[in-house]
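Record KAP NTPase domain-containing protein, 499 aa.
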Amino acid sequence: MTTIKDFYGQYNLIENPFASFTTENESQRFDKTFVKPNDYETILENFSQTNSIILSGDRGTGKTALIKDFINKVDAENTVLVHIIDFSPLKSDYNLNDLYKFLISNLSVSLFSNLAERKTRISNLNREEKLLLCYLLKNFVPQISKGILREKIENIQISWLQRNYKKFENIFRGVFNYGATAGGVFIDEYIAKHFTGLPPLSDSVQIKNFFPELPTSNIEEEFINQETSYQLLLRIAKLSKKLSFNRVLIVFDRADEDSRFMNDAELISDFIVKILTDNKLFLEEDLQVVFSTWSTPFNFIKDQVRTQKHYCPTLSWSNEDLKKALNQRLLAYSDGIVSDYKTLFEDSITELEIENVFEIANNNPRDLWHIFNNLFKVQFESDSNSTKIESESIPKALVKFVTTFNYYEYYPKKSNSRANTMDIYSYTKHLLKLDTEIFTKNQLNEKAQTGGSTINYVIGMERIGLIGLDSQQGGIAQYRIKDSKVIFALKNGLEINKT
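=>
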């Protein structure tokens, strides 16, 4: 009996290239599978010039992969990188003061992590600047981060001692024991001891030491106001540059995946709008801010964002780009043997049949991986001893892909919605009653019996990007279904239901 692993081997593949759909799950093969999307060079140029960027795109178009590629190009020796993918410490109804404190905390953690291996740079600072480092360590580095930082320091110490064991054999045991028993030492003091030249944390260090213009002498740390927080953030950025880190890069990614929002695009847009409309943060010369976002919630608030002032590229893929990405993926999963996707198909398959596959992929790499995953599954079920994908497998795989796809992956839903509310599944139920993918409001009402809710349906479908205005004929608006999966279902009499 042929196993699934043997089956892929018959296609000269080491394993299934289409079993993983996210950058996070492919870290080991990232360098071999990454393909530059449209406008890559222009986006990279802006990134390299330390311009702030608001990057948007549909889910599955490779935003996180692009971010990873850019981060890999960063010079770690001269950059303080703050890569934020966990937004849970920031309450959903945060204000700008909360945001700045959140950034100060993340920046402080990254700064100390970088300094752990470059502690001699602290000698460049004066006493007040060293006190500022102490203040940040004491007040803005979370306890869990301090534990991770301590482990990093211990590893640095042990690695250094192992390299120099013969030279320092007499003192090795004493220093190692200190690191090993540091759990019993106040962790802040232990970390501070590593950074030679920092004053003892027992010294009284308060925010008023750095901002003497504050109105009271006994101001409490938790009541630092918004402007003070922002100025402290900028002061840390300047301090980083004095420590020979000439670039302070803050990257926001995957805010839309925060479980609190439950894929509700309105909740997501309400969360990200405060960041994306903070123009002074994006224009600050001592900081570079890169914000990656799902295009649907971004489009909800786009009119509030200075898109003409900031660089705001949108990731997109042509069919030719998808073919290059597919071939690159096959190379990576075949150890260089398979370089052309066409060799996976039997010779009798027409160009039109293959083009239909790319058409339904909807200009989205992740959709294409899902389609090919289904192609292999269907072919395995049909003939596990085959060495080519047969013509009969293509329509079966496409039907399976369209009807089992989780449309909530790409389209938002209301977190408090009822089963019969206006969402992607209720929208497609109505659209699939039409005769063609191009329609008017009257035709939608006539075919789907939407009645007085017709206008609301059209507005809702436009808002999430499911349909778009196609043309105006005699003053009557004509709309077009944009999702190739839904068009395929319409043309083939399929139903799309929640699975």
